[in-house]
Every structure is written in C-alpha cells, then in structure tokens.
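Class, discuss our next protein.
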Amino acid sequence: MLKKLFASGLVFFFSLGLFKYADAHVTINPKAVEPGSYEKVDVRVPVEQKDHTEKVELDIPKEVQVSNIQPVEGYKYSLDKDKKGNITKITWKAKDKGIGPNEFIEFPLLVASPKEEGTYSFKAVQTYDNKDKVKWTGKANSEHPAPTLEVEKNANAVTVKEDNAKKDERSQSSSGGSIALWIISLVAIILSLVALFKHARNK
C-alpha cells in the first residue's frame, strides 16, 4: 500500500510540471509591435538537443521588411532577396561549432512592420551538427510552431500583459512543485520508518 502511495506521489509530482521545459521554441521577441513601425526584434533560438546548432534559416513574411541585421559573434549570415531587393530569407551559419546544449542565442533584426494588424509567421529551420533538422513551421499549438509576430495597436500593453501572465504561471508551477516535493519527502520518511521498524522486529 505504501509503495503504491509512493508511486502515486511520484506521478503527481511530475504531473505538476516541476521540470517543465517552457518556451523551448524558436521565437520572435517582442511578440507584438505597433502597425507601421520600425522595431528591433530578436530571433531567439534555444538548443533542445545534446548537439550544437550550426545553422538557422528564417523565411521573412512578404508583409514584413527587414532593413538591418546585427552581426552576432560566432555566426555569419547570408541573404536571399526578391527582384525588388527585399530580404526574403536569412541564413545564419556557425563559424565554428555554434551554440551547444542548454544554450540559446538571439539574432537581432530591424524590421518595418506592416500597417495591417494581424499575425505574421516566420518559418524557421534549425540544423544541428549531427545534420538533424528541426522545422519550426507548424501551427501555434503544434510540437514545432513557427515563430510569429503580432502586429496590433497598444502592442506594449499586450507584451506587458503576456509577461505578467508568464510570471504568474511560473509562480504557480513553483508553488505546485514545492507542495509535491513536500508530499514525496513525507512519503519517503514514512517508508523509511516502516522499513526500520520491520528490520528491528526481525532481529
């Protein structure tokens, strides 16, 4: 019975998501900008595998204009352009090994946002040095969602609201994890006492 209780406690502990790997996706930050504005955005690329990221490819939506790319140490970039000279794709390649496990990198861009409000998708492909490719091209709730940029009025207020929501979520997750850890510790102590009691009786 106690062993079953201990196993159930472990399931509960992990179901609370104490070890949740949050936001481990390629993203555009900030997530929201004002219509018809010039903004600095960062393409944030985390490493989810035990290998190094050697290349990142980013397709630019036709409605978004990239005016400048900030150089990033350790990576070189190349551009694809259309007939009008607009940047349609950016490819970053590592000069050496690139970023490794548990690391992330940000590639800063200056962009001119569309005048029309909406959600604009930047499809990305992340290539590891083992030649594994992760295509960040899916829908919002998919395993590999494409990074998106929201263009809407009062974008700063929207960003602050999202940041506060994330803080609340992390706080709740931490609180839940602490309760689960307390339960597991209590069950472990009980099991230890029972084992000691049985051992003493058998002597």
